[in-house]
Amino acid sequence: MSAFVPSPRLVRAALPALSLAALLVAIWFVQPRAISYFGFNLMLNLAMPIAFATIAQLCVITVNDLDLSIGAFVSFVACVGATWLNETPLLGAVVLLGAVAVYALIGALIHLRNLPSIVVTLGMSFFWLGCSVLLLPSPGGSAPAWLAALVKFRTPFVPFAILVSAALALIVHVGLMRSAWGAILRGAGGNPAAVARAGWSLLRTKVTMFALAGVFGVLSGLSLVGLTTSADANIAIRYTLLSIAGVILGGGEFVGGRVSPVGAVLGAMTLTLAGSLLSFLRISPDWQIGAQGAILIVVLALRALVNRLERRR
Amino acid sequence: MQQGAFSRLADWSSRRPWLWSFVGAGVIFLATIAFTSGKGGADVLAAALTFASFYVIVGIGQMFVITTGPGNVDLSIPANIALAGAVAMKVMDGSNVMILPGLAAVAGVGLAIGCFNFALIRILSIPPIIATLSASFLVQSTAIAYGRGLRIKPPPLFAELATGRLFGVPILAIMALVVAAVMAVVLRRTVYGRSVLAIGQNARAAGLAGIRVERVRFATYVLSAVFASLCGALLAGFSGGASLNMGEEFLLASIAVVVIGGTSVAGGFSNVPGIWGASLFLYLLVTMLNTFGVGAGVRLILTGLIIIAVIALSGGRRAGRG
């Protein structure tokens, strides 16, 4: 019987990949030439920074928090990358390390004072935006040549952005889903009391996940500024919403440490490609954000259906 | 004896969590006035009352949503404000006769967005944060497509309503005060308000006690959306026309005024006066930093840090209760 009807669990896990596949078929149908090395290179140009930002968000969601400052943070990193990192590399590197430390500190503050992460990270989004405005009052700067060369690296057969995203998904999957440490980190989101009683420090898990979010945020900002070569304070503001949407699209739940790194990266790619499909369909860019919202709703509706089927068994 | 008086005072103030937001607003106001050596105090106050009114209207809706329990929050407010402002200006079309139909249309927008939000939460069982977020994507796109190139001025009477003063007090502030007073009574004295508080404290117990939990949540999301829409219309009237990004700052502001005002983010404990104190605090904070002559960057940094500091100082105290 089960040979004919796949289990809801499997369907749920496959949903992100199926959404991406459906989107690719739609693109192929509308514009067959886009399904090529060159086409993917163009369409997935910005997939790399979005994938990093989505994984950063995933780290925070794993421990039942939400980061509304990631977009402002990625913008700040991009601004540092286009100014200090280029002119005085040592200072730039120290500032970026300090920024990761600030992320860890925020995690500690949220845990120790039992604060709502939404409000704290909204406040932090103002902080990062202010820092970016101080650093780059008007759009400009230029990325270090090595950085631009690195992210625009052209690999044979498969575009670099896809390779990096796949590697990212694999590394985070092994680290978070397959390792003993990963189980504890996810457990801190699933059942904090049990993890604490087993002798693990909840403070340490929260600080670890926020610091990791900071690291992936830095990677996102650096890959973004490498691609665009200049920056401004608002360059990545929309990443906040995109990253949350990507994680949820990829099968992550808001609470309980139920996340999927592979799904999240697929979700990020789906949202990136959705924009291309819309422009192939000659739909006005006005509806770009709306389409992302619609995709999110459709996928969540499908998942609700799967969950309902699961409960019926 | 001294100790007794002190603990009585501490007890008195802990039952009034909104007190601190007013104290904070007062301190910041005095600091601003001291810096300008008393000049322009009345103007600062009038401006603060006007801008705080927008925060208050949106904040009360957000407060009701947050009160219904952990995870409940309305993130569609900025997009809602943008769409409602555009709809208001288009329907009113600069003529005084069309003000009431315009407001009705705006209320319709709020009603529709509130229903949509709740449909996503209830029927698709999407967590409220994601539901209101994805709804806001669609609303934002609608606002962009609908309001592109919109250059309609508000009707003179409506602009007068949004910017005028009565005995030196902004009309807007008087309206917001009345709304706040009414909503305070609704929260404390009506079946609906008590139900909202009960659901926030324990949704299961509230359901067992016979409260129709989902119906109350539905009404709450609609209430928040309608308040945001009306704020959008007033904002467009105040600033001489609708713009697409005029709702942006209200995402942080609506949540911040609720939390700074002493409402528990875990739900179940809220108060209306705190919204006013926090709104004045938030606006006066920006005014003070402007008066001190700091640049945009430093102002943003300090705003963010002060909000976090306020929550860090007050949040832990409430954790034990919520």
In short:
Chain A is mainly alpha-helical. Chain A has helices at 8-30, 37-43, 47-62, 70-82, 84-87, 89-112, 117-135, 145-151, 160-178, 180-190, 192-197, 202-228, 239-249, 261-280, 288-312.
Task: Write up what this structure looks like.
The complex is a heterodimer of chains A (313) and B (322). Chain A has one domain (15-21, 35-304). Helix content of chain A is 74%, strand content 0%. Chain A has helices at 8-30, 37-43, 47-62, 70-82, 84-87, 89-112, 117-135, 145-151, 160-178, 180-190, 192-197, 202-228, 239-249, 261-280, 288-312. A two-stranded antiparallel ribbon of chain B has the order 1-2. Chain B has 322 residues and is mainly α. Chain B has one domain (19-31, 40-315): ABC transporter involved in vitamin B12 uptake, BtuC (Orthogonal Bundle), CATH 1.10.3470. In chain B, strand 1 and strand 2 (169-170) form a beta hairpin. At the A-B interface, helix 7, helix 13 and helix 15 of A face helix 6, helix 12 and helix 14 of B.
Order of helices and strands of chain B: HHHHHHHEEHHHHHHH
Q: How would you state the average pLDDT of chain A, rounded?
A: 87
User: What is the oligomeric state here?
Assistant: heterodimer
Mean pLDDT of chain B: 87
Distance from first to last alpha carbon of chain B: 31 Å
| Largest sheet, strands/sense/barrel of chain A | none
Number of domains of chain A: 1
Across the major sheet of chain B, the strand order is 1-2
Shape verdict of chain B: globular
Give me the number of helical elements of chain B.
14
Second-tier CATH architecture of chain B: Orthogonal Bundle
